[in-house]
Request: fold
Amino acid sequence: MTTQEEQTRSGLRFPAGFAWGAATSAYQIEGAVHEDGRGVSIWDTFARTPGRVLNGHHADMAIDHYHRYKEDVGIMAELGLSAYRFSVSWPRVQPSGSGRINAKGLDFYKRLTDELRQHGIDPWLTLYHWDLPQELEDRGGWPNRDTAYRFADYAAAVHEALKDHVHTFSTVNEPWCAAFLGYASGEHAPGRREPQNAIRGAHHLNLAHGLSVQAMDARRVGGCVNLYAVTPATDSPEDLDAARRIDGLQNRFFLDALLSGRYPEDVLNDLPFETDFIEPGDMKIIKAPIDVLLVNYYSRFTVSGAPGGKASAAAAPTDTASPWVGSEHVSFVSGGHPVTAMGWEIDADGLVEVLTRVARDYPPIPMVLSENGAAFDDHLNDGRVHDRERQAFVEAHLGACKQAIEAGVPLEGYFAWSLMDNFEWAWGYGKRFGLVHVDFETQKRLLKDSALWYAEIIRQNRRHEPTDS
Reply:
């Protein structure tokens, strides 16, 4: 028995057909920002603005996946992945965000998905992972209702081109981040600090989801939310109210809209302005039927309503405002757990809490854990990366997935974030989430110990799956 086999005798057995995956996003890995007709995105502009991204980093090359995709798919095959979640770059496919479709941009994703299928890897396509075409931002961005309709047009074009290549399409990745980090705190592109426009943007991102579901008529389509377990620091009325507020804006605002066709009244009441931008019929559109819910989970929030705390959960590398519109007074405190290199507390029990809550409180919907992972300070030693902390993180969260399934949650897959080290948004290249180490100077890829361990977990599970006779 090999060392990896010995290390993975942990009882992590999952149902047949469970999707074993890893995830990335276009802007973080592709590079080639000036090639083959790609337009400018808000992240291109943001990263080139002094003081926005740590150390002035940008993703003009990122990890050069645009040219190295065959090598990267080979790594996925070596790991034994059965699924790969990636995003399409909107400005690569539609440079101005409307009108002309760039055939060369679509061709890249045809080549990528063909390569994946040739290796037996199921492509999971995300339409939007935060790289809005700059021309649409110049017209108002997500606070402009028209952007939702332009997104639906883009979604329809991508679906028409790739419907024979891709089985599962998902719409908007983590609309909370796109709205509140982009338009309230200014931590993410486009870097605006306009709380009322952040709420407008959140609604229009939800509307874009619903409109694109209708426009695509895909065989299998999903929405994606980033969820947190939220705990009050004490049982005081102030802390209980803080937990209600943060849970409302982070979790229920999006879950209630996508799955129940409404916004929580208490969340709307927390806002210091009217929401007259929500038009008749919007909620019916947002509730367009989906086939799977993609859940991203990283950590738990412990919150307080008492004065004097840090009024933002974002561990931003640069000066930012609070993303918590209407609840800027809420502070985030330690729950006493170990933390990752991002300062995020490690709490796998929170994942069980999140998944069982969705299964309990909302209409039945299959789920996948579409992002889960951790940044740690990795080091090369004798040509290896012994990232035991990351391995322990993934193992604990896979254990939480198994526990949730045993409790009746219809969880159908796990996607590690991220497949490879990459451009980590406002942190530039300073934080490494990958199962695969990337030397950003040479672009050399190297499987970390966590990747070898994950591959063995996958191998053991797939070995026990029934085969066609």
Notes: The chain has 16 helices and 15 strands. Residues 237-260 form the longest helix (24 residues). The CA atoms of residues 200 and 383 lie 49 Å apart.
